[in-house]
């Protein structure tokens, strides 16, 4: 999926053709201005505002400010500085931001897969748990995801546990045990009580 220039504008400062091609495959050329460094920018680019500035870190560059154009407003622009592998990973992050900001090139709302959304939301949580010497992260996260998933399935089926178990792909007894273990309140609709009786 590519994004139109009206949605997200990127300034890429890298002389590496592999990085440039990688970003061009992710974003349309019209959404991106590329240059070897800030001194090689076209004159019209110095007057434009960008949603993001991506700078390839070079040896001897102590921080991103050395390669940052002077006209960039840091309060309104995302700046990512890093090595080639970091910039390649950053393109996925950039897609997430661009999707949240706008639309895809055909004008439809930009979809974000459930996997992308969960990965995006869990990043800080996992990092925080690691920094805090967290343990047993897998069962904790599974429990945190399982409870709202079962609750939503029960809401969707008006409390009918047989239908909810089928929707979730679980055995009915397994679902009942999970409802008890996770302390999920079960509210049954009138039609669900008649069918289960």
| Oligomer classification | single chain
Give the proportion of residues in helices: 40-55%
| Share in β-strands | 5-15%
At the first level of CATH, the class of the largest domain is Alpha Beta
How many domain units?
2
Count of beta strands: 4
Mean pLDDT comes to 75
Description:
The radius of gyration is 24 Å and the shape is elongated. The chain contains seven helices and four strands; from the N terminus they run βαβββαααααα. It folds into two domains: about 10-110, Rossmann fold (3-Layer(aba) Sandwich), CATH 3.40.50; about 115-190, Orthogonal Bundle (Arc Repressor Mutant, subunit A). With about 200 residues, the protein is of the alpha/beta class. It has a four-stranded parallel beta sheet with strand order 2-1-3-4, covered by helices on one side. It has helices at about 15-25, 85-100, 115-130, 135-155, 160-170, 170-180, 190-195; strands at about 10-15, 30-35, 50-55, 80. It starts with 9 loop residues before the first strand and ends with a helix. The model is unreliable at about 1-5 and about 105-110 (pLDDT under 50).
């Amino acid at each position: 999926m590519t994004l139109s220039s009206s949605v997200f504008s990127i300034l890429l400062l890298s002389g590496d053709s592999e990085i440039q091609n990688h970003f061009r495959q992710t974003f349309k050329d019209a959404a991106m201005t590329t240059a070897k460094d800030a001194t090689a920018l076209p004159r019209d680019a110095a007057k434009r505002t960008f949603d993001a500035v991506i700078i390839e870190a070079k040896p001897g560059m102590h921080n991103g400010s050395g390669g940052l154009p002077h006209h960039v407003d840091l309060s309104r622009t995302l700046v990512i500085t890093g090595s080639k592998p970091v910039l390649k990973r950053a393109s996925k992050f950039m897609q997430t931001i661009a999707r949240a900001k706008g639309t895809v090139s055909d004008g439809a709302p930009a979809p974000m897969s459930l996997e992308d959304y969960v990965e995006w939301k869990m990043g800080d949580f996992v990092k925080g748990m690691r920094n805090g010497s967290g343990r047993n992260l897998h069962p904790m996260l599974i429990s945190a995801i399982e409870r709202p998933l079962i609750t939503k399935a029960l809401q969707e089926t008006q409390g009918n546990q047989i239908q909810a178990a089928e929707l979730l792909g679980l055995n009915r007894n397994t679902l009942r045990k999970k409802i008890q273990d996770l302390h999920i309140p079960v509210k049954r609709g009138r039609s669900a009580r008649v069918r289960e009786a």
